Amino acid sequence: MNSSPSDPAQMRRWIYGILITIAFAMACGRIISVQRVYEPAFHRDLKKDGDGRPLWPEARPEPMPTFGSNDRSRWATIRALVHDGTYVVGKRDQDVAVKTAVMQIGTMDPMQAAVVAQVGYQQRVTSQSGIIFSDGWQTIDCVLHPETWDYYSSKPPLLSTILACLYWVMHSLFGWSLATHPATVVRAMLILVNALPFMGYLWLLVRIAETWGKSDWGKIYIVAAGAFATTVTPFLITLNNHTIGTFSIMVAWYQTLEIWRCLKERSQMPILGFAAAGFFASFAVTCELPALSFAVAIFALLLWWSPVRTLLLFVPMALVPAIAFFATNYAAIGMWKPAYAEFKGPWYQYEGSHWKILPPELSKKGIDFAKNVESRGEYALHVLVGHHGLFSLNPIWILALIGMIAGSWRIRDIWRQALFRGTDAEATSDPFPWFVQPLGLLLTIVVTGFYIQDDSANYGGFTNGLRWLMWLTPLWLTCLLPVADWLAERCTTRWLGGALLGVSIFSMCYQLWSPWRHPWIYDFMMELGWSGY
Question: What is the domain range of residue 396?
Fold first, then answer.
């Protein structure tokens, strides 16, 4: 018999399909039109004394489908690997001179120069060459080898190496080059590595909602939130580690939930699920180092549930990305330790570096150096509920937090279910996985606390949200599901949920042409007279 609109399951599938189609089409449309936009608001007003922002370019900048230092750093490595067979993206002449200067790296990039004060200190500068000194390729996210004076991207090279393989295929098949056809290459690759995986990510979210949700409204709410209301959406148009890390977390998380479901239903656990969970949890760590906490957590759970499968499948597959991470790092810079671990060393602290630590009287300005002008308490406030606030920009996470706290509060019931997971009594209890909310709460506290106490304290830089918390999104959406089901029971609570979803979508759609912009709350505070950083 043909399905009809009166079939709730079929109706949900139609709605899911429409939501995913809209989200994918919007991502592709934004990617195909992606281009660096120069905005008057970010440049110097000559009528104002003391305006330290960069001057409006005298000549037209090279049109580029990249936004600034973060993504250009990776694109430069990809280009160097395919065309030059090296990780070197620039070279400094060792015949040095001494003169007064402000910044030698990224001076042609107004958005990056905007965060540097006009301090005019004495520094050593040299003639420099290479990809990152070409118009449209400038980046401050680079390190300088203290012995060879070669520049490298400061980003871990594994992701760039993988993407260089994809670029090599495109270059070999179609002749497209990042040097001569940057728009074509960048846009095509972003569709392949961001937009298409985003569809898979949403499909897995649908599976989670259908498996563990109870109400039609709650299931649809979660999928709509995943499609439009999280920091994943604005970052789909730029090459970055955060979206790819989030997609990897989703795969590992989904497999963990499926293994639990099979264990609960006493059915055959998916053998490939253990391998996939291990590989993608480990790969997520190569993209987001704090995701190690997630990888360790699901390893412990799987080891508890099935020690043999975990040791024989999860562990070997988890070693693959880990080995590749250190191997590519050694191949790139000649040491096992990532370059960003040398932040206070000579790799970062060279003359002309954007990240060079200066004396207090010459402290740089801008959001990258917010720690110079605000206390740790003020920083924590803005991370949670302020201008970059996790809960002020995406208030749907307030609902997720409520779910995490409520689920963790029933600690005795949780442990009873864990200890007697195979009994008939447990099978009739709340089917929602007992470990989801406590794990979500624990990781949220640990990871957010890690970034609050981190020495960099810069909100992730010039960006529209807390991008380094993005990888927690799959867990937060799952924790939100029981709360969405509760909201579905009453008209007033559904309106509340809709309002919070609307604000979250508004925040993520603010300045959609670039994720490398301040959030709307930050700009609003500036309009009210706040001096900013």
Answer: 8-34+180-527
Has residue 160 been placed in a domain? no
- Token reading at 337: 């330790």
Q: What is the reported pLDDT for 328?
A: 97
Torsion 235-238-241-244 (CA) sign? positive
DSSP-based three-state secondary structure for 142: strand
- Confirm whether 105 is domain-assigned: no
Q: 513 CB contacts (<8 Å, ≥6 apart)?
A: 30, 34, 37
Taking Cα atoms as reference points, which of 304, 290, 295 lies closest to residue 241?
Answer: 290
Segments of the chain with pLDDT less than 70: 1-6, 94-126, 361, 410-430
Q: Is the dihedral of CA 232, 233, 238, 244 positive or negative?
A: positive
Give the count of domains, the chain: 1
For the segment 500-512, what is each residue's pLDDT rounded down to a tens digit? Answer: 999 999 999 998 8
Provide CB contacts within 8 A for 507, sequence distance 6+.
393, 394, 464, 465, 519, 520
Residues whose CB falls within 8 Å of the CB of residue 427, separated by 6 or more in sequence, listed in order: 264
The first and second tokens of residue 265, run together, are: 């239903």
Distance CA 114, CA 119 (A): 13
Residue 458 is classified by DSSP as S
Query: For position 418, what pLDDT does the model report?
Result: 53
Is residue 490 situated within a structural domain?
yes
Cα dihedral 331→332→338→344 (10° resolution)? 140
CB 115 within 8 A of CB 167: no
H helices present in 215-352, as ranges? 216-228, 241-265, 271-287, 292-305, 307-309, 315-333
Q: Which amino acid is at 37?
A: V
Asked if 402 contacts 373 with a C-beta cutoff of 8 angstroms, the reply is no
In a domain, 83, yes or no: no
pLDDT of residue 413: 62
| Gap between the Cα atoms of 375 and 433, Å rounded | 40
| Separation of alpha carbons 76 and 311, rounded Å | 39
**Residues near 381 by Cβ (< 8 Å), separated by ≥ 6?**
none
Cα–Cα distance, 151 to 57 (Å, whole number):
26
Q: Are 375 and 367 in contact (CB under 8 A)?
A: no
Rounded to whole angstroms, the Cα distance separating 480 from 397 reads 8
pLDDT in tens, 25-80: 999 999 999 999 888 888 888 888 877 788 898 888 888 999 988 999 999 999 99
Instruction: Specify the amino acid at residue 414.
Output: I
Q: How many CB atoms lie within 10 A of CB 442?
A: 15
- For residue 151, the surrounding DSSP H or E stretch is strand 150-153
Question: Could you write out the three-class secondary structure of 161-199?
Answer: HHHHHHHHHHHHHHCCCCCCCHHHHHHHHHHHHHHHHHH
Look-up of token digits 């000559």: 46
